[in-house]
Amino acid sequence: MRLSYVLPLALFAVVAVALGIGLTLNPRLIPSALIDKPVPDFSLPPIDGRPDGLAAADLRTGEVAIVNVFASWCGPCRIEHPLLMEVARSGEVPVHGINYKDLPRNAMAWLKRYGDPYRRVGSDRNGRVSIDWGIYGVPETFVVDRRGRIAFKHVGPMMPEDMHQRILPLVRELQDR
Amino acid sequence: MIVEVGHYALILALALSLVQGTFPLIGAQLRYAPWIAMARPVAIVQFGFVAISFAALTHAYVVSDFSVLNVAMNSHSAKPLLYKVSGVWGNHEGSLLLWVLILTLFGATVAAFGGNLPPELRARVLSVQALIGTGFLLFMLLTSNPFERLVPAPTDGQGLNPLLQDPGLAFHPPFLYLGYVGFSMAFSFALAALVEGRVDAAWARWVRPWTLAAWCFLTVGIALGSWWAYYELGWGGFWFWDPVENASFMPWLAGTALLHTAIVVEKRDALKSWTILLAILTFSLSLLGTFLVRSGVLTSVHAFATDPSRGVFILAFLVLVVGGSLTLFAIRAPCLTGGGLFAPVSREGALVLNNLLLTTACATVLLGTLYPLFLDALTGEKVSVGPPYFHATFVPLMVPAVVAAGIGPLLAWKRGDLAGALSRLRLALVFALAVPLATLMFAAKAPMLAVLGTALGTWLVAASIGEFAERVRLFGASPRETWRRAKHLPRAVYGMTIAHAGAGVVILGIVVSVTWETERLQVVQAGESVPVGGYEFTFRGVEDVRGPNYDAVRGIFNVTRDGDLVTVMTPETRIYDTSPQTTTEAAIHPTLTSDLYAVIGDPDGSGGWAARLYHKPLVNWIWLGAILVAAGGIVSLTDRRHRVGAPRRKAGRAGSGTARAARA
User: For the whole model, what pTM was predicted?
Assistant: First the structure.
């Protein structure tokens, strides 16, 4: 009988421990099966009205790069956009784009209106290549190392602390390697 | 200057809460009258300081003082006044200040109007309240100061999350907090009772109005939140089993159980330690809700402000408050001896069943909410628990609860007569069978679950009304006699009838709208017509609209029925100047029997627009029913026994405390 009065306390202790562990985890950190794997083989045409396009070969040039998946219809993309502009202006690391399921006209207008941080952009009209990248929503951002392997993946819009405390330090570490 | 006054008032409030949290508690233990008497004035003055602080922050918002970091982050000079004011609690720091404001308001109310409480009980209750307040004030001053300055001040603010810029949501948090914090009163009374080692009918009568008031506010708060999700998120849904929604729903479930079990303590002097435990759990779940929403341990579409570093503080606080109170419970509750015995089939029995089902339902929701967290903590695996889990666990638990809610009120205390109760409800039974039969016969599709749902909803409405008719002898007595009985019936009975019937209306609204809604998702060209649920939606095109602080694309739909124009619907997609986020403003045309619901989406690039059009029968019964449920609570709150105050404790125990000390 006495035990039943202690039971609520015991149950709460379990919950509290789980909450404590939960605090140390990052709910936005979704592991990618592709981490440490080479980028998938792909070749994307440019957005109509741009000269470049993006292919796997562009990511195996011995340079660390950021690959950002975006779309003009994507609200959260506009939240992280200023951060990408800032990185592009600093010239610290090239930023490439994959334009996901977007109309060329809308994508070009979007880049014109908010600024174009990308060195190269591939247009993934039907989303086929993005499936190979394991993308299930925009925006997503990858860090690719010198040998063209995916080192990091961020799901959702990047916040300043994501960029400055995780992504850029990782980029610098990879560049020094 | 005003801002610094607000900050300083907050610090003074903290100092006072420390005083209020210690001296009266010790005074009550030592029976030292001056310290016991301190509780009242200190509680009132403390509320005064928090109110000054809140007023200072509101002032900063209204005059758009962007030298305050909080204002600069969350407001904008072009915002309408209503949203400047609601912006005060539309962010982390401000919402905490609102929390504390309500907490101290309740404390001050006990101090000012709790004249008939025994002084020691009142002192202990106010001390526990102050200790909770101390935690929140410390949290604010150490980690989340709303009065932090920003130098240099920006020329304009960053604006409020546009999703939140909405009248429904402007008043959603205050109601929710009135509910959450209201349960702190039940909690404080429970702890005071544990310290005293005494729970009796008088105690239950003091606790009940607080619980009832808090529960009414929470009901309204949840309904407002659900209504907001319905028309603002543009998905046509009204409940998503999202962690943040669950966070408010769990205290509601536990609070509902507490309301019912407090009746048993009051009338029958039984189930004491269970009631105390429920009071602790209800408030603990309110705190847990705050923790889940504010710490970011769970991701949610609703998580507007999350910060793990603050989570550590809240977790420590949670452990202290909940762990501490449950420890006190484990030590002291065994001393509480229950009185009344009762048969399984009796009013008490029905209320015990109600409690078992509601708390089990609450536990399943808690498990579903925390399971992803447990799994992540143990194995690192990421999952999300969705509506299927909740439908599979929560709904079956509610079925017997609804059946019992119809019968329970007709059972006598101690030993009831089930057959007799059912025979008096035969008319309700007939309704509960006839309505689903009619749907089976006339509806184009009638899944079994939906038929069962309509049966349950009808049953609860009919049984509640039937029980009332039985009480006033609507059939079988003269109208004069019926009138006389109706007049003398306690308000609590009216309240119960309204609330139970309201719950039935909610069930009907949910079941019918989910089962028989018509949904059309398609690209429409100007001039094109789409039939939806017996109505014809004709798309007339879009126009660009400029709002006070946003640009909008507005779609225009002419809605006709049998060729007659019913209404013109104008859903919008808004882009706010200060935020890159777009919001959908669904157009809703409500009638008593259904809602027409239209959302305009994106252009397809060749002249067409994506549109979502719905016909949702009885969907507004969900909120109508919720209003009835809350109204029932309010009516019950005006019951004479609450207005005249609690009875004096039995002679020999009241006042002096000597006899009580001997018992404890």
Answer: 0.80
